[in-house]
Amino acid sequence: MREGAMSLSLLTRLQESHEAWLLGVILVMCALLGAVAPGFLTVGNFVDLLETYSVQGILALGLFVVLVSGGIDISFMATASVAQYLAAFLAARWHWPGILCIPIGLATGIALGCINATLIHFVRVTSIIATIATMSVFFALLMYATGGKLIADIPDWWSDRIVFAQWESADGDLVRINLPIVALAVAALLTWLMMTRSNAGRQIYAMGGNPESARRIGIRIGQLHYLVYGFLGFMAAAGGLLQAHRVGEAVPNALYGTELAVLSAAVLGGASLSGGSGSVPGVLCGIVLLAILQNGLNLMGVSPYFFQIVIGLVILIATSVMVLSSRRRRAPRARGEAEAPAGG
Amino acid sequence: MADAQAINGNLTALMRLLRGGTPGGLSGLGSLLLGLVVVCSVAVPDFASAGTLQSIMFQMPELGLLSLAMMVPLVSGGLNLAIIATANQAALLMAWLMKSMLVPGAPGGEVALVILAAMAVGLVLCIAWGILTGAIVAYTGVHPILVTLGTKSLIDGISIYLTRGTVISGLPEQYSAAGNAVVLGIPVPFMVLVVAAVLVGLLLRRTGFGVATFMVGSNIEATRYSAIDTRRVLVGVYLASSVLCFVAAALMLARFNSASADYAQSYLLVTILAAVLGGVDPFGGFGKVAGLMLSLTVLQVLASGSNLLGFSDYLKLAVWGFVLIGVMTAQTIRARLRR
């Protein structure tokens, strides 16, 4: 009886696991696209894909932490652009060494994140409105100060490719694992450690689940606000620096406008806007799913204009299914709890 | 412990302050406007003139209608991020219909008929998007931010996919002539805005639907237990928002004499800014159309002043962002002082 219940719970747990569902969808899509588009199911294509989406992946990981805490941030792309441009300006115009430029870029990201945290915690503005305001201020000031001019002469120490591993795949292509993929892996590990292996991570989940009860059990909400928005600022700056490394130039409005894709990756990965849920593997699956979708549509020759429609549909369907299925799951449990006292 | 008490106190203060709206309420906003006008008249050459007044009356309507379209969902505790996408798609559809159904030199009666038909189709499109958005918000329970981000991406995507990002221009002259006419010194678009504002005010204050909208914004569960069909109210909220987008689309079409998927995209922030500055509670439940209209005038005076001073568009956006943050900060400080 007890064993039966246990295997049943394992089964339902697998069924309920968001990540398992996502992985299933990814595998089915891979099989489909592999059959339709030759060249899709190769190691080289996958490595390219990961590298293309590494920056968005890092940003999605940062945003995921904010979403778990129950907030939202729209300004991270503006933060990434400001940090990237400032570091590139110091490196290219004033010829400062990388050991100074990179920390300054990252610190800028953290500082801008802390501005958001101050507005949200002390001024008590709703996070979406606060970050819409800061997004427009950061971005407008950046465009005003730079006149929209790009910095194309980024020094070599920044833009040179850094290869961590390379090998020849079975079909003769040279496959390289470059810095962006390694950076994505490090960012994922860091986020995963923070969210599952530290007190702060547990407290962020608690705060997202119910801020009032989190406050009453003695969690310092203010510090956590600074932690989550500062963390996203840091990740945004890292993503911005990495983007400049990949393309070899700093363009003030290159990242602007891609917030939606990052948000949809985080939401696809199971982070809910009401906070308290989501996991790092889920977010990574979300990014991979978006990457596969876009890459597959490209290989099938579908117009790139179509991709925005796909993102819209994916957000609508994924969130609706998540909310509806969690509601269905909750209903019988609530009934069971109500019956329990009567039975006992 | 002291910290916890402070937070609790802040929460109470916050609730009180949100009910109070902007510092000093409508009169505070009115004096802010008056002060701005005086400062601009002194500091900016050529500001105090009939031309400035008329240009403000020409520029305000689109932003005003889009802000009304944002305000209705805000009052219900939601948000509609798809307003500009909806307006642009309706404008594109109407422009395409007018262009493809008319040959140059068609008689006036036929032109008028085609214009009316195109507008009817545009209205139907907006109604369809409004009902769809409202139904998703009401029946799935997904947060409106996510739903409308999704519909925004979907609507924009469809517009861009079909037009390949191009601009549709070449409308019948009669259409833009009617849209840019000035009657008794007042531009027609401004009259449209005033009528729409009065209608929205009546809808929110004088009908059962309006009262239900405010109640949903304050506490949706309590409203549901009061035997109000909250789902129908939510569908109605997004429907009203979309219909206002249609009116904005009709005005934009007349003013730009063309339509595109990326017109007015920077207005999205400004509509929220205008609503919050005008005393609409971003958490829902409170807000007045009069406050919104006052704050729109403040923003437009700021914009006209900075235009005359030769500020760039980016600087203007930054100024608006600072104003929003400044108002929020002022509200918080006022609440702390009161305690």
Number of helices of chain B: 14
Radius of gyration of chain B: 21 Å
Q: What is the CA-CA span between the terminal residues of chain B?
A: 19 Å
Helix amount of chain B, in percent? over 70%
Strand count of chain B: 4
Structural class of chain A: mainly alpha
Strand order of the largest sheet of chain A: 1-2
Give the SSE layout.
The complex is a heterodimer of chains A (344) and B (339).
Chain A: H1 2-16, H2 18-36, H3 43-52, H4 54-68, H5 76-92, H6 98-121, H7 127-146, H8 156-159, E1 163-168, E2 174-178, H9 179-197, H10 199-209, H11 211-216, H12 221-247, H13 259-268, H14 280-299, H15 306-343
Helix pairs in contact in A: 2-14, 4-9, 4-12, 4-13, 4-14, 5-6, 5-7, 5-12, 6-7, 6-12, 9-10, 13-14, 13-15
Chain B: H1 2-20, H2 25-43, H3 50-75, H4 83-101, H5 108-140, H6 144-163, E1 168-169, H7 173-179, E2 182-183, E3 186-187, H8 188-206, H9 208-218, H10 220-225, H11 230-256, E4 258-259, H12 267-277, H13 289-308, H14 313-338
Antiparallel strand pairs in B: 1-4, 2-3
Question: What does this molecule look like?
Answer:
The complex is a heterodimer of chains A (344) and B (339). Chain A has 344 residues and is mostly helical. Chain A has helices spanning 2-16, 18-36, 43-52, 54-68, 76-92, 98-121, 127-146, 156-159, 179-197, 199-209, 211-216, 221-247, 259-268, 280-299, 306-343, and strands spanning 163-168, 174-178. In chain A, 74% of the residues lie in helices and 3% in strands. In chain A, helix 4 (54-68) packs across helix 13, helix 4 (54-68) runs antiparallel to helix 14 and helix 13 runs parallel beside helix 15. In chain B, the strands form two sheets. Chain B has a two-stranded antiparallel sheet. A two-stranded antiparallel ribbon of chain B has the order 2-3. In chain B, helix 3 packs parallel to helix 8 (188-206), helix 3 packs across helix 13 (289-308) and helix 4 runs antiparallel to helix 5. Chain B is globular and about 70 Å long. The two termini of chain B are 19 Å apart. The model of chain B is unreliable at 13-24 (pLDDT under 50). The chains are: A mainly alpha (344), B mainly alpha (339). Chains A and B meet through helix 7, helix 13 and helix 15 of A and helix 1, helix 6, helix 12 and helix 14 of B.
